[in-house]
Design brief:
Blueprint: H1 3-16, H2 23-31, H3 35-48, H4 51-75, H5 80-83, H6 101-117, H7 122-138, H8 144-174, H9 177-201, H10 209-218, H11 230-249, E1 256-257, H12 262-286, H13 293-320, E2 325-326
Length: about 325
């Protein structure tokens, strides 16, 4: 173990040494970076508050998830509790540690929210970003370097989105539907190809047995599987479904006004989440989750349908049922 890693472990031990009274707090903070929380938050924003902001936050989340999955394999770095049993595994993760996905997503997603609202929300975004990084180190799943690199990559994605969002959106709207759909699929396949290429590049590298055994001792119910492909197909499938939905919205078909009476918004949200859960849980139970081509293809399809439902199909249902007013276009 090198000197830097030893020093970073002391950071984890110092944070955990502050006491277990922090565990519920840090667990709650880290939940703000979970898939379930983002689903609840972003659908609420998109369906009931601000469609543009909700879509932008969802898009950068998928970009962040896909790039994070690639970088994790590229660096193939352990988590603290994988290499030192003094670090308590208050949480457990099967993937590699560098960079921190929670920290990267927090920087990019909450950064987009702060930039979009522009109502002195920067302090709130900064607080969430800071606490997210601290929570991941306290829980024993990330080194300081993981958090710092996650923040850097998230900030770069945020800057790129702010710089290129407007010209890319204008270009996307100017294309016909076939080109918009083709662009959506092509970019999703590029995400998949990048993930597969990085995996192939690490084919000669072997996971140290000590990492696996130490992680298993720390978290017996959560064995690690850092080379799993599921994450990249989840992000790319959702990306394709969302962009395909956006491609359909450009013509105005299904574009909805997120405002309206509170009762309408609540009913809209409950209906939308119900449909999303049917796809998420229903297809998850029907489709095989085997680690082969058919399993990954069906995973891509499942999440593509979830993305399409969230962005286009659910708003179309809201309009048909009188729960939202239509808009001419996005």
């Amino acid at each position: 173990m090198d000197a830097l890693t030893q020093w970073e472990i002391t950071v984890n031990l110092f944070l955990q040494g502050l006491g277990t009274w922090l565990l519920p707090v840090m667990s709650a903070v880290t939940w703000l970076g979970s898939e379930n929380f983002y689903i609840l938050l972003l659908t609420m924003l998109y369906w009931c508050v601000d469609t543009g902001l909700g879509l932008r936050m969802a898009i950068i989340l998928m970009l962040s998830n896909s790039t994070n999955a690639v970088f994790k394999i590229l660096f193939h770095s352990p988590r603290p509790y994988w290499i030192d049993l003094r670090v308590q595994a208050y949480s457990a993760e099967p993937s590699f540690g560098l960079p921190s996905g929670h920290s990267q997503n927090a920087m990019s997603v909450w950064g987009v929210m702060a930039a979009g609202i522009k109502r002195k929300t920067g302090w709130l975004a900064a607080l969430i970003i800071l606490l997210m990084g601290l929570s991941r180190m306290y829980l024993g799943v990330h080194f300081l370097r993981d958090v710092l690199l996650g923040w850097v990559i998230g900030a770069l994605l945020l800057i790129l989105m702010i710089m290129f969002e407007k010209p890319l959106v204008n270009w996307f709207k100017s294309q016909n539907f076939a080109y918009r759909l083709g662009f959506s699929l092509t970019t999703a396949l590029v995400m998949v190809a990048a993930g597969l290429a990085v995996h192939a590049g690490q084919s000669d590298w072997m996971l140290p047995e000590s990492w696996y055994q130490t992680a298993l001792q720390a978290a017996p119910d959560n064995p690690i599987d850092p080379f799993a492909f599921e994450g990249i197909f989840t992000a790319s499938g959702t990306w394709f479904g969302m962009l395909a939905g956006a491609a359909l919205l450009v013509g105005g078909n299904g574009a909805h006004d997120p405002h309206g009476p509170l009762v309408q918004r609540v009913l809209r949200y409950l209906l939308g989440i119900t449909g999303l859960l049917i796809l998420y849980l229903g297809l998850g139970a029907i489709f095989p989750r085997t680690p082969d081509l058919s399993g990954y293809a069906l995973r891509f399809l499942r999440y593509a349908l979830i993305g399409l439902w969230a962005i286009w199909l659910a708003p179309l249902v809201f309009i048909r049922l009188g729960l939202a007013k239509p808009r001419s276009a996005v």
